[in-house]
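Provenance and format

Records in this collection were gathered into a single text stream. Each protein contributes a sequence line and a token line. The two records reproduced below are adjacent in the stream.
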Amino acid sequence: MRNKITFLLVFCLILSCVDKPVESSDDQVKIDYYQFREINLDSVGIPASIMIPNETAGIGASFAPKILHDDGGFKWHINVGRHFNVLIEDYGDYQYLMPEFLRRINTKDIFNIEIIEESSDYILYKRELKAVPNQQTTYHIYGVKYLNGVYYEFTNKEEGDSKKVIDFIVKSFLSFKILNNPQ
């Protein structure tokens, strides 16, 4: 009888281990930030850091980054050379930024818009003029990050960027995070 009970206990233990999927944070894809450097945004009013391209990126990012921000303002322009330009805007606790953007994106009458990649916090899309399709394709990102109780809107320049530059901007957006040790 004792052997039967032991067998049943071991069998139940094995079944319980097999049925539950193993969840791991290692399942997320690691992004290679080889051609990037981290900058701390705490000194300009955002308790976060972001990875920006360095001089090896090949997009004209050999200049020191400029962060344009008015004291007490809610907008930050991060420029690294001529091509890498992003705008971060503080929207406080307003949580409907992404739904509003999704509603607005298809109401533009002069552009053909194709969504390339969509996740819960950003949309990567390309845009062409309807009048002259295939003449000039530009790439754009719209993202929203929720950090420290604040919603931050993240966009590239209105006129768009090349595919190579937007790939760097997307990686920067994905790296935008709370500081581990705020100073």
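Adjacent record:
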Amino acid sequence: MKLHAWIFAAAAALLPLAASGQDAKKWKPYQFVGNERYEYKMVLREGDEKKEMGFVLDIRKKGAEEWDVTWSTKTAMKKAEGPEVLMGGLGMGVSPAFFLMNPLFGAFLEQVELKEGEKMSLFGAGVVKVTKKEEVGGRTGFVCDLYTKQDDKDLLAWSCTVDPALALPIRSITYEEGKEKQRMDLVGYKKD
């Protein structure tokens, strides 16, 4: 495990303690209300190659304490491809939802006050900055950028746009060595 991953894991455990005295409005990830449908466009980049997919998450109330959850992926495939069909087009058995929001990063975002210009230090391992508001998929949210320390420089590792009324980000972009690696953009949200 890289040192940065270990520091983030330790910091995530300490964050609720550090923020317990704050009264500011915060985002609550994964707080679904039920009977809602999230639809995303996903773009994966590998070098100069780009692959587009669709990802849908549908959450229905089954009872007072239960949900029916359905997710699906949509991607163009070549007839000769095999395991990729079974694995949702990724070919590695990873859910596209992992690229939407790593739960570790979600723990940091829960602690940030959602207002432009806000910053939160991650115990010397990096910083989260709320930079602006933007519209994605007909929703408005706050752009939260996660920078990690590498060789004494702050490098953008993840950018996430959060609509505080929704349980999931409306945009999520991961970066590797300063270049966009994966992107998920909300194209539709419906609650009935």
